[in-house]
């Protein structure tokens, strides 16, 4: 599957859960939202081969 | 994970509340919480006219949308800081939301007011940009309220903003700021407009989910000065704790509100002898800036859409 995060594209073998994807990218689930095929996904969502994942950073501020 | 309300597939899991919801029920859950916060803390009274400060980011634009959905007649206020494409893009997001809601937005262009943007001003004054920016924003927010007849200035600060600021104040024991934060700051007649923060108890992640689900087009580009900011470090630290122990940020901020009630004491107000706005020195920094740059006596706030 293709995982897009901050302009970079990562490839992972599926199926895998969203929480495992975040762990592999060392991302804190509090700091991002995950969109699978254009729909918000919870951490227990299983992502299958061929699905598109976009991870969006939520933290901002200066 | 199933939606607690309808049993369909959940799209948002709010660990701090131990609840999973589908998109539709998350939106109503969040809007209801903001509405309850406004009611519980009496943030906007029926006779008050609010203005929401919108940066173009997810929190302030979503807040404008929520307040509008809740039936409040709210205009926007935006400050164009003169930071090139970052400022231009921010303004275009704000205008798009004004169009979407059918509301107007007051716009202050720093380059029009002072003849230079925040970066150059910071360089010329040899002052740290973020602190200077905060001072100017507070001044202009107060001024637009006073001059345009708004009773309440609405800010989009969320739970994570408040928790990180609180952590920073505690780490450095900034007693002068420590007990000043609150969900609402009452007006001082002729000097200070009332300020409120309806998202005080809503997390940054919840706001991002809300913006996504409502298809709110916000600026994702960070402020050029945000890189390396301590706020981001504190947010990261707090999120690491939150991940291990959900609800910590909420308990931290709610606990603070209780402590502030006990320890805050009576607020002592000091005012600038020139503009009359809050200041700890005789002439506030902004009035001193106006002596060197621009003319502070008359500021023209642009309006979008232009009045017919």
Give a brief description.
The complex is a heterodimer of chains A (62) and B (308). By secondary structure, chain A is mainly beta.
Low-confidence residue ranges of chain B: none
Poorly predicted ranges of chain A (pLDDT <50, ≥5 residues)? none
Largest sheet of chain B: 7 strands, mixed
Distance between the termini of chain B: 51 Å
Beginning-to-end CA distance, first to last residue of chain A? 34 Å
Helix amount of chain B, in percent?
40-55%
Q: Please tell me how large the radius of gyration of chain B is.
A: 20 Å
Q: Please state the CA-atom Rg of chain A, rounded to the nearest Å.
A: 11 Å
Structural class of chain B: alpha/beta
Number of helices of chain B: 12
**How many helices of chain A in DSSP terms?**
1
**Quick one: which chains have the greatest interface?**
A-B, 20 and 36 residues
Largest sheet properties of chain A: 5 strands, mixed
Strand content of chain A: 35-45%
Adjacency order of strands in the biggest sheet of chain B: 7-8-6-3-4-5-9
Shape designation of chain B: globular
Number of strands of chain A: 7
How would you write the strand order of the largest sheet of chain A?
2-1-7-4-5
- Alpha-beta content class of chain A: mainly beta
What would you note in describing this structure?
- The complex is a heterodimer of chains A (62) and B (308).
- Chain A has 62 residues and is mostly beta strands.
- Chain A is 11% helix and 42% strand.
- Chain A has one helix and seven strands.
- In chain A, the strands form two sheets. In chain A, strands 2-1-7-4-5 form a five-stranded mixed beta sheet, with no helix packed on it. In chain A, strands 3-6 form a two-stranded antiparallel sheet.
- Chain A starts with a strand and ends in a 5-residue tail after the last strand.
- Chain B has 308 residues and is of the alpha/beta class.
- Chain B contains twelve helices and nine strands.
- The longest helix of chain B has 20 residues, at 129-148.
- Chain A binds chain B through residues 28-33, 35, 39-45, 56, 58-62, and chain B through 1, 10-13, 20, 23, 57-58, 130, 160-161, 164, 203-205, 207-209, 212-213, 220, 222-223, 225-227, 229, 231-232, 235-236, 239-240, 242-243.
């Amino acid at each position: 599957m293709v995982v897009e995060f901050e302009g970079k594209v990562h490839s992972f073998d599926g199926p895998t859960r969203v929480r495992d994807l975040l762990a592999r990218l060392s991302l804190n689930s509090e700091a991002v939202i995950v969109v699978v095929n254009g729909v918000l996904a919870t951490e227990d969502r299983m992502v299958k081969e061929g699905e598109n994942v976009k991870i969006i950073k939520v933290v901002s501020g200066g | 994970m199933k939606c607690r309300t309808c049993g369909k597939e959940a799209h948002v899991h709010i660990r701090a509340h131990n609840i999973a919801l589908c998109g539709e029920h998350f939106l109503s859950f969040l809007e209801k919480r903001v509405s309850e916060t406004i009611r519980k803390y009496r943030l906007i009274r029926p006779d008050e006219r609010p203005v929401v400060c919108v940066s173009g980011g997810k929190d302030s634009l979503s807040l404008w949308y929520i307040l509008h959905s809740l039936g409040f007649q709210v205009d926007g206020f935006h400050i164009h800081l003169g930071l090139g494409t970052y400022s231009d893009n921010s303004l275009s997001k704000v205008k798009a939301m004004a169009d979407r809601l059918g509301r107007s937005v007051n716009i202050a262009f720093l380059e029009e007011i002072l003849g230079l943007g925040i970066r150059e001003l910071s360089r010329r004054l040899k002052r740290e940009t973020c602190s200077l920016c905060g001072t100017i924003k507070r001044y202009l927010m107060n001024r637009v309220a006073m001059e345009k007849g708004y009773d309440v200035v609405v800010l989009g600060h969320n739970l994570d903003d408040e928790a990180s600021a609180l952590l920073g104040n505690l780490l450095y024991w900034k007693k002068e700021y420590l007990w000043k934060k609150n969900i609402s700051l009452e007006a001082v007649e002729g000097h200070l407009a009332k300020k409120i923060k309806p998202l005080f108890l809503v997390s940054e992640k919840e706001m991002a989910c809300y913006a996504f689900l409502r298809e709110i087009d916000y600026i994702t580009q960070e402020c050029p000065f945000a890189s390396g900011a301590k706020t981001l470090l504190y947010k990261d630290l707090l999120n690491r704790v939150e991940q291990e122990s959900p609800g910590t940020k909420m308990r931290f901020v709610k606990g603070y509100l209780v402590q502030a009630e006990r320890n805050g004491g009576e607020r002592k107000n000091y005012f600038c002898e020139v503009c009359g706005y809050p200041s700890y020195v005789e002439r506030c920094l902004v009035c001193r800036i106006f002596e060197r740059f621009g003319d502070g006596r008359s500021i023209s706030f642009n309006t979008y859409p232009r009045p017919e």
